[in-house]
Amino acid sequence: MSDSIQTKRRRTDPQTILCDMCAEDRKPAKKTCMKCEISMCVQHLQAHLTTPVLLQTHPLTEPMDLCGNTKCSQHGKLLEYYCLDDMTCVCVSCAIEDQHRLHNMKTFSTAHKELLEKLKAEQLILQEKTDDENVSLEKWEKSEREKLGRCSVRLIEAVTNLRDISLTSVQSSVSARMVSLKTSKSSMEAAQKEKDTFRFLQMYSQVHQDVEKAKAVDLRKGLEPGSHRDKLAEEIRQNGEKMMKQASQFWGSLLTLVDPEHHQELVPTGSDLIFEPQSLGPGMSLSKDNRKVFHNSWLGQCCATVLICSTKTASSYQRWVVSLPEECDWMIGLCDKKFAKNLKDEPFYGLCWEDKQLSFHPMENDDDSDALFKEGESNMANTAKQHMVSSELITNEEENGDEAMPPLEKVEVLWNFDASSLSFYCRTGQHQREEIITIEMSLNNKELTPFVRLGKENVQNTTQRQEWKCTCGKVYYRDGNGYRNNMSRFSSQANCSCGKMIGGPCVTEMVCKLC
Questions:
Q1: What is the Cα gyration radius of the chain?
Q2: Architecture of domain 315-452
Q3: pLDDT tens string 290-314
Q4: Residue 410 in 3-state DSSP?
Q5: Pick the CATH number of 3-130 from 3.40.50.300, 3.30.1370.10, 3.30.160.60, 3.40.50.1820
Q6: Which of 36, 91, 176, 198 is deepest in the core (most CB within 10 A)?
Q7: Distances in Å between the alpha carbon of 379 and those of 363, 367, 374?
Q8: pTM score, two decimals?
Q9: Residue 449: how many CA atoms within 13 Å on its side-chain side?
Q10: Helix (H), strand (E) at residue 375
Q11: pLDDT tens, 334-366?
């Protein structure tokens, strides 16, 4: 195409494609031939529409500026197809012989039609999402402002109320004490003005008392002792607790708004979450509300598995926070409900604290079991090994190397149904959390359920060897002949060296609870 034609095209309309075959007075193009690499008006297009050979072998498109990009850079052939998988134009050699031969290939016109329909559908989805009041920027901003505004108003009101109560009461008390100062001042002025010696000496005793009383006044000591001060102090304590709670909520709301990944308010998970025992060791029990696990002996010699059940159905996620003991091993995560009582040989997703080390288990079963059976037992065993992933240690990444994770007091777990992920967080404060790890799950067609396991898996609960731990720290073992420690044997009526009866009831301790 000559420079004069290009100049004339630009002068006409930069968005209008003109016919390349018109000698003068170039008309707008109707179609562009990809093989001839020319654009044609209605008149010059007739040859392509009426000649069978041209009609079959020359692809026509809507008018376009070719700019020399109609040939395949690898094969030098005409670009005739569109690869939907790689979203690129290809030639016939690419489609048949090279890397695109197994891809979803379409002609330009078909690809244009399908992709246009796809864009229209996606546009409707985005439009609906934009119109949704839950994600509308204006409504979101209004909602957040109102929420933070309510928190700040309540906080300001609480602070102002505390200030007014305290200042008013102390001001009244100070005003009462100021009377002594004023009285002493008046008495001294009157005595100094008295010229008669006898009357001055008679006045001096009272003046002296007023001065001593005024000197004893301390304006900084608050209210005078008494029922009024005690009542006011109790009222300030109660209102102060409410104020601190409101301040904490306001603080947490701001942190969650700015950095929701690491700051989420630690609110109670609700009464809809309860423990459902699968196995409880000797001396272990649940609270009446099924939200706490208790034990009255040494936890290291027992084992318990409890499921976390919800009475409500969550739409897209389930969240729970569990307080866990430092002195024993534990596991928390998701397992197949059918195998909750015996997790030793069954897959589960979980976070584990064992032997003072933190690890995670991304174990999974192979879902293609039918195909594996067809290929033979040996092949099934090899493939199963590839899909069974062992636990991996979690450490702190420091500048000088990895360090072991410290014990966790509170663990927050978020099970995202839609994303098929299980996230674990360490709660480090009322509003602060730190992500430990997120596990991508692939246990399909399994009835997964949250669980907590306390103690080691290989511990066997038996009545032949029970342990009793005294409050002083000494441990005694029971067999058929009574209790004993490493040094001596005692009857069931003997006393520990601290005086406590051996075998007596231990203090029941809470070892796990839903927060």
A1: 42
A2: Sandwich (2.60)
A3: 888 887 654 445 688 899 887 666 6
A4: strand
A5: 3.30.160.60
A6: 91
A7: 19, 15, 9
A8: 0.47
A9: 24
A10: helix 369-375
A11: 888 887 777 766 778 889 888 888 888 875 544
